[in-house]
Specification:
By secondary structure, the protein is an all-alpha fold. The protein has one domain (2-131, 183-292). The chain has helices at residues 2-28, 33-45, 47-58, 66-80, 84-96, 114-135, 144-154, 161-170, 174-198, 202-220, 254-259, 268-275, 283-289. Helix 4 (66-80) crosses helix 9, helix 6 crosses helix 10 and helix 7 (144-154) packs antiparallel against helix 8. It contains 13 helices and no strands.
């Protein structure tokens, strides 16, 4: 129960920041450069918390009642601009098919142009991952045969065949398609409302979304960057200041999470100590390491 109450407090903080981002700020305060810059920085710094709470809902750890857990997760996804069902599929695929073809953006194939690979890689690193997550849900708006054609042609790597089959099976079901379509409609409606509330200051709202997507993309592959293609359940566990651990919901223990995906985020440090594993550098260092660019992986 203590975990639930703490998570509810964090959820309340995330909800307040999101409300300010989506129009409460210009409604309550007179916008000024100092205030709006502080707001954009706040939304950027707290993106790991926002996304982390959604991540907990994906693993059914956020709220004990599954209906409310799913509702909270979908609300977090809508305000991030990313439908929960597609994010859930992508994350569970990350667990089930770790280092699959879409899950190793830094991998440089033999004979591949390093310049071209770097251009694609750095775009993904700074915002491309989030853009892909935002575009993918629109496949549920087209007929199933068209969705199947796209899934089969976007990547013909035989290694990705099980993932394509799983995606087609999941998003051919009416319930999931309707849920994603509803969330997309909610995202558009909420964004239009936010732009109207911000008025002449609408670029601030756009900047806050871009900033959050930048942080999401930067965090996406950080614990796996440079790891072997056959790393399986392994991922890096990194150090972070204790006071900041709640901000990332202990996802610096990403290796522990991969081995015990059903553990609540507050249980990860204890499991790490029990495992006798070692830290592989710091959390911030893992983020910055990615800027080395594409590399050949064993």
């Amino acid at each position: 129960m203590r975990k639930t109450w703490f998570d509810l407090c964090l959820l309340g903080c995330a909800a307040l920041i999101t409300a300010l981002q989506f129009g409460l700020f210009p409604t309550v305060f007179e916008p000024g450069w100092a205030g709006v810059i502080a707001l954009v920085l706040l939304t950027t710094v707290t993106e790991p918390l926002h996304n982390g709470l959604m991540h907990e809902s994906i693993h059914s750890n956020l709220l004990p009642d599954e209906k409310w857990n799913r509702f909270a997760g979908r609300a977090l996804g809508v305000t991030l601009g990313l439908p929960w069902e597609t994010m859930r599929f992508g994350h569970l695929a990350h667990h089930g098919f770790n280092r699959h073809d879409f899950d190793r953006p830094e991998a440089l194939a033999p004979g591949q142009s390093r310049v071209l690979a770097a251009a694609v890689y750095y775009f993904k690193l700074v915002i491309g991952n989030a853009v892909a997550y935002a575009i993918a849900p629109f496949l549920t708006a087209v007929p199933i045969p068209a969705m199947k054609w796209v899934l089969e042609n976007v990547d013909r790597n035989p290694e990705s065949a099980p993932l394509r089959v799983a995606a087609l099976r999941a998003f051919s079901t009416p319930a999931k398609r309707h849920a994603v379509q509803f969330d997309l409609a909610a995202i558009v409606a909420l964004d239009v409302l936010a732009l109207w509330l911000w008025g002449a200051w609408w670029p601030v709202f756009v900047a806050s979304i871009v900033a959050r997507w930048f942080m999401l993309s930067l965090l996406d592959n950080a614990p796996h960057y440079g790891m072997p293609l056959d790393s399986g359940l392994n991922a890096r566990n990194t150090r972070i200041a204790r006071w900041a651990s709640w901000l990332v919901l202990n996802q610096n223990f990403h290796g522990v999470h991969h081995h015990y995906p059903l553990l609540h985020w507050r249980d990860l440090p204890g499991k790490f100590l029990q495992s006798e594993e070692r830290y592989e550098g710091g959390w911030l260092g893992a983020l910055l390491r990615q800027f080395r660019g594409p590399i050949q992986l064993s």
